[in-house]
Every structure is written in structure tokens, then in C-alpha cells.
Amino acid sequence: MKRLLLPAVLIAVGLLLAACGGPPPPLRSDKYLNDRSLLTGSPCAAPCFQNVTVGETTFTTALESIKANPLFKDVQSQDNPPQAGWAAANGDPCCQMTANAQTGKVDAMLIRVAPTMRIGEVIAKFGEPQYVSVGTQDYSAEEAVLAVLFPKQNVILYVVPGNPASDLDENDPVVAVIYVDPANFNTVVESATLWGWQGYRAYSDYKTATPIVTPRPTSTPGQ
Fold first, then answer.
1. Residue 220 maps to a domain
2. Number of domains forming the structure of the chain
3. Which end of the chain is more exposed for a tag (fewer CB within 10 A), N or C?
4. Residue 213 domain flag
């Protein structure tokens, strides 16, 4: 099982979604989890997913819940460090979660979803996002991707506007949802290069804009 990256680096666009070698897998696929729970709030509201609340639910309890959920199959897990991955019942591998080894509580979940949610729907429900992140390289010649951050909901979305020459608009699909422990969201922000939300505009405009947040320098021992 591939290791899910820690919350502080979840923001690296495409990193969690890319294949190791060869062409990257498509970001838009009906074989990922058919899920709109971010919008419906059922069976629970963000940062909860399928009755697992990031920052509250223990890894042991979450794993039992995932294994018992008919929406999922092929659950793989390990205890050190605590992490798990699984597939949609009728599709491809879709989901990963990690937990804090000290507290035993889930600290991040990544859910790859079929392209049924639109970014405009999410903004209509939660209001405008605060930040956007863009990778230094385009995901592929066919697909560009933006990470869109909603700090109040402790959620990061991956949105595909089309290819790198495309404009972002309200009908563009959400292809992945990351639920982050509220206690860690500021760490995510401080560890990333982020642009301010500037509305629906060209993907290239975001990519060439001046970031408003850059990674905080880390101190070295003795300094």
C-alpha cells in the first residue's frame, strides 16, 4: 500500500493522485467513488466522512467502520504508522486515511470522487474558498488541476478546469476531497505555496499570479 502523505504536504497538487512512473491516471473517472456527501451532509457534515470525523474518530474505530461500509471494498491497513486505503465497491481505489500515532485519531482523509460535484455547487453551499494552490508542473497535457482550500470547513478540493489552456468555471468537476484535522489546517497553510481565490478565471492566471502565502522557513538545530 502506498503511504498517504502527511497533512502538511497534502496541498501539493497532483502529488497524491499521480502514478509512480508512466502516464498519470485520469483525474476524472466514473470508477472513483460516486459521492456527494460534502454537499448533502449525509451521513455527516465536513470534516466528517461516512461517520469518520477527522480529528475525533480513532483509527481503530474508523477502520472498523470503513470495513463494514458496503460502499467500499479491498481495505488495506497498517498500524505503524497508522494508515489505510480502500476502493469503491463498484470501482477503483479511491480513498486513503492517516492517523496521528500519538493520539490514535484520524488526521486526514483523501477521497477520490466521480465527477458529479461542481465547484459552483460547493461555493453556493459554503461560500468562496480562501486559497488556491497550483502545481509547478501541469498534471498532464489533457488535465490541469487546482487545489481549492476551504479553511472554515477544513476541506481541500481538487478541481479540474480542463486542460492547461482552460478557464476555471462554476461547472468544473470536483475530483477529490481532502478532510483535514482542524488542529492541523493552519500547518497545511503554513507549509504550502498558496494564491488567493480570485474567482473564475484562466488556470494560467492562477499559475502565474504572485502567491500570498509561501512556506514558513523551518529552523535548524542550534539556531
1. no
2. 1
3. C
4. no
Q: What is the rounded distance in angstroms from the CA atom of residue 1 to the CA atom of residue 76?
A: 7
What is the pTM assigned to this prediction? 0.89
Angle 75-15-12 from CA coordinates, rounded to 5°: 120
Digit-by-digit pLDDT tens for the chain (223 residues) are 444 444 433 444 334 444 345 577 889 999 999 999 999 999 999 999 999 999 999 999 999 999 999 999 999 999 988 999 999 999 999 999 999 999 999 999 999 999 999 999 999 999 999 999 988 788 889 999 999 999 999 999 999 999 999 999 999 999 999 999 999 888 888 888 899 999 999 999 998 999 998 876 654 445 4
Q: Is residue 51 part of a domain?
A: yes
Domain coverage including residue 159: 7-208
What are the φ/ψ torsions at residue 125 (nearest 5 degrees)? -85, -45
Question: Domain for residue 2, yes or no?
Answer: no
Task: Look at the chain and count its residues.
Answer: 223
Residue burial 195-223, b: 16+ Cβ < 10 Å; e: rest: bebeeeeebeebbeeeeebeeeeeeeeee
The strand pair at 174-180 and 195-196 is best described as: unpaired
